[in-house]
Amino acid sequence: MGRFLPPDHSRGDERTLGGYQAVHARPAAFAGRDGASYSVEIEADETGDPAAPFGAYLLFVRWSRDADPRPSGHLETAYLARGATADEARAVLGAMPLERVKSVLDELIAEREPPSGRPWWEAMHDDGGES
User: What is the chain written as a DSSP string?
Assistant: First the structure.
């Protein structure tokens, strides 16, 4: 099981993703719009682009609702930051405010939600379509 570590506010701004991770020595966690719990990590990978060889993205791990929580899936973004090194790209993404990280999570969940089941002629009015 986990252990309590008191936050060290000298390590960063806990209102940003990277700052939260540094201050609390653990990943940030959110309740998604689907009711599931998610933790988030900043990952980086090679982009294949010589101008910005590394890209950073968010990896959200969904946790089961069982009594013994375990990973039950994940969501990930496209590259949200780029840099000359993996650490540089991660640092750029680490400056993202936690409120924006939560919005990104909810957007990813919404993209995967099944259609509303409403007829297209009703749904088109919500999307700004013409009647």
Answer: --------GGG--TTBHHHHHHHHTS-EEEE-TTS-EEEEEEEEEE-S-TTS-EEEEEEEEEE--SSS--EEEEEE-S--EEESSHHHHHHHHHTSBHHHHHHHHHHHHHHHSPP----HHHHHHHTT---
pLDDT digits (tens, 9 = 90+) for 4-27: 788 889 998 999 999 999 999 999
Report pLDDT digits (tens) over 92-105. 999 999 999 999 99
Global pTM exceeds 0.90? no
Residue 80's pLDDT band (cuts 50, 70, 90): very high
- Domains of the chain, residue spans: 9-113
Measured CA to CA, the distance from residue 80 to residue 82 in angstroms comes to 7
CA distance 124 to 119: 9
- Measured in whole angstroms, the distance separating CA 18 from the mean position of its chain's CA atoms is 12
